[in-house]
Specification:
The complex is a heterodimer of chains A (152) and B (507). Chain A is of the alpha/beta class and 152 residues long. In chain A, 38% of the residues lie in helices and 16% in strands. Chain A has five helices and five strands, in the order E-H-E-H-E-H-E-H-E-H. Classes of the chains: A alpha/beta (152), B alpha+beta (507).
Chain lengths: 152, 507
């Protein structure tokens, strides 16, 4: 079974723990990488500095992106990503945030988000969300080609 | 009177058309002009029918008398008749217009020409005098002048082609402060502000009027005392029959009051714009606050709820009955808080929505709301609303309002009776009223005001759940959509909550 890398961008430690826990209930088949601010995401995806080693820091199949994160916001990350060459711009990004605000939702889609999910208030609802995410994004969804140099 | 009847005149009897007698005959026949002769000192030497008609004297009663009898007392006091003769004797001719007196003492406006008569040796032998009665023209001119002079609301005056003032009415004096003596002959540029005068505005105005026949404008002008007033000005070029410019007329109105009003209006609208901007800004702040509430307040909530769930799942074995009970309390409280935050956000959102109102089918809105209610016991909700009714509303907001009313109607039922809710609608003077009637516990009159306030609850949480925001949202939404809402209720007899919105054409 291939191990699919997932990049989770989440600055809140409790949210991270809860999400991690919900993902932990699933069978293996993915590997989660966590980053806590927008600048890190850009560095990671660019393969800069500490993220140079792609074996240790692979390009993810999908990004779970919070909007309200330090330094570069989720919106800025999206904007940067969609402007990247060599297919990196195709990287599926699922916004996972707490805002139901229509301006946030619309802006995220305008900037090229592939999906927009709101963090549920209860643990059981989160379990459900993670389960469905896995089914759809890691199961049904076909991934685009990113670039030769990123090929896994 | 003529010595010869007109019918008797014939060229042969007079000895030809060149005969001096013919001229005498002509004079004797003319009745529109008084034509007569004066001797060098002004005694009347001849009299024609025109003179008799104009002045009222017969030839026999006036010939030999001095022509001074035709003058007014005021003119006589100034020796006007003597002056006229002297001028005529000197330069050959004197012309004048002025009041003259008839035999009966009445006055008429006369145009007078006195011509010097010399003999072959150049000695003065007398004067010819031709007088015309211009009273009618004079009166209409006078009337016109009085009309213009009497106008006090407008400054009306005339100017020569160079812009020198040639007439001045009382309105001009009132508005600009100059008496006729002070201004006649002066350039109209004195009415302009110094900087306008330096910029050549007065000349530009005259040139524009000369070119276009007409100039209209508004601007600041100054009075004699230097004070400013806002003037509406119309300058018209005056041309004679041949098209030669003979001068200008100028009508000026003092619009300072109107200008002040307009300025005030402008200030008000500027202030209003400022307030709108401020409100937009405070709305933006509110939005930021709501965002922060939704994000920051919910994060710890997710932690409480999430870890309570985790605890229940992973550590339930280590907890006894009491521990699990406490865990349930934590979960319930966090759920309540979640609803509260959501409702508060909704309340804030309802106040901010500025989307344009549209025609919304009431039946559709009710349908949207009932779908959000989920499954209900059969018979608990009856909707009797004609499909054709539409209101001016915001679709989501209206559905939210109806949902809140339905939730309340279903919730506050008597403990021994299942809820029965009836939704109806009626037209009232251009509005449509939606009634949500229940068979519930009802509301005492003293509470019927309070229930619309935020966080207002009449019951403890154990009897009836809720955040106390639902009706506050209804009220806010109703006023946001130019409508109103209310309740008709008696304790124990159920309630009718209603909302009224402007009727819309069904589209």
């Amino acid at each position: 079974m291939t191990v699919t890398p997932i990049l989770l961008v989440e600055d809140d430690p409790t949210d991270f723990r809860l999400i991690q826990r919900a993902f932990g209930k699933l069978n293996n088949g993915f590997r989660m990488f966590r980053l806590t601010n927008g600048d890190e995401v850009v560095s990671y995806l660019s393969g800069d500095g500490p993220y140079e080693n792609r074996a240790a820091h692979p390009i993810p199949a999908v990004v779970l992106l919070d909007l309200k994160i330090p330094r570069r916001s989720g919106f800025e990350v999206l904007e940067w990503l969609r402007g990247q060459p060599s297919g990196l711009n195709r990287l599926p990004v699922i916004v996972l945030t707490s805002s139901r605000h229509s301006t946030d939702i619309n802006r995220a889609y305008d900037l090229g988000a592939n999906s927009y999910l709101v963090k549920p208030d209860s643990g059981t609802q989160l379990d459900e969300l993670v389960e469905q995410f896995r089914t759809y994004w890691l199961g049904l969804n076909e991934f685009p080609t990113l670039a030769a140099e990123f090929a896994r | 009177m003529a010595k010869y009847p007109v019918s008797a005149i014939s060229a042969s009897s007079l000895g030809g058309i060149e005969s001096p007698d013919v001229f005498r005959r002509l004079v004797d026949t003319v009745s529109d002009y008084a034509i007569f002769l004066l001797d060098p000192i002004g005694n009347i030497a001849s009299w024609n029918p025109g003179a008799k008609r104009l002045k009222g004297y017969n030839a026999d009663e006036i010939i030999g008398k001095n022509f001074t009898v035709f003058y007014t007392a005021a003119d006589l006091a100034n020796d006007k008749p003597g002056h006229e003769l002297r001028v005529a004797a000197q330069v050959g001719r004197f012309e004048d217009e002025g009041w003259r007196v008839r035999k009966d003492g009445s006055r008429f406006w006369a145009n007078v020409i006195i011509t010097r008569l010399l003999d072959d040796d150049g000695r003065l032998i007398g004067f010819g005098k031709i007088t015309r009665d211009l009273s009618e023209r004079r009166i209409s001119e006078l009337r016109y002048r009085l009309l213009i002079e009497g106008v006090t609301d407008y400054a009306i005056f005339s100017m020569d082609p160079a812009g020198h003032v040639t007439s001045w009415n009382s309105g001009a004096q009132r508005i600009k402060g100059y008496t006729p003596d002070e201004i006649l002959g002066k350039s109209f540029s004195v009415f302009y502000l110094d900087e306008d005068r330096k910029a050549g505005l007065p000349q530009k105005v005259l040139r524009a009027a000369e070119e276009n026949g007409h100039f209209e404008g508004e601007g600041w002008r100054q009075r004699k005392d230097g004070s400013k007033f806002w003037a509406n000005v119309v300058v018209t070029a005056l041309r004679d029959e041949e098209g030669t410019l003979s001068g200008f007329s100028k009508v000026t109105r003092d619009m300072t009051d109107r200008k002040a009003l307009l300025d005030e209006l402008k200030n008000h609208s500027a202030e209003l714009e400022l307030r709108v901007r401020e409100r937009d800004q405070s709305n933006a702040e509110l939005e930021a606050f709501a965002y922060s509430v939704s994000h920051d307040l919910r994060a710890p909530l997710r932690a409480i709820s999430g870890f309570a769930d985790a605890l229940r799942e992973e550590c339930a074995q280590q907890l006894d009955e009491r521990g699990r009970d406490y865990l349930d309390e934590i979960t319930n409280a966090s759920r309540r808080m979640s609803t509260l935050v959501q409702d508060l956000l909704e309340y804030g959102r309802v106040g901010r929505i500025s989307a344009p109102l549209a025609s919304v089918s009431l039946a559709n809105a009710i349908n949207d709301a009932t779908q959000q209610l989920g499954d209900l016991p059969s018979g608990s909700l009856t909707v009797d609303v004609p499909a054709a009714l539409s209101v001016r509303a915001h679709p989501q907001m209206l559905a939210q309002v109806i949902l809140n009313l339905l939730v309340n109607a279903l919730k506050f039922h008597k403990s021994d009776e299942s809820p029965k809710v009836l939704v109806t609608a009626e037209e009232r003077n251009g509005f449509i009223r939606l009634n949500v009637q229940d068979n519930g516990i009802g509301i005492a009159p003293e509470h019927q005001e309070r229930i619309w306030n935020v966080f207002e609850r009449l019951h403890d949480r154990e009897s009836y759940t809720g955040t106390g925001i639902g009706l506050a949202i209804v009220k806010r939404a109703a006023s946001q959509m130019n409508g109103s809402c209310g309740v008709i209720s008696q304790p124990g007899a159920g309630s009718i909550f209603w909302i009224e919105l402007p009727r819309a054409e069904h589209n």
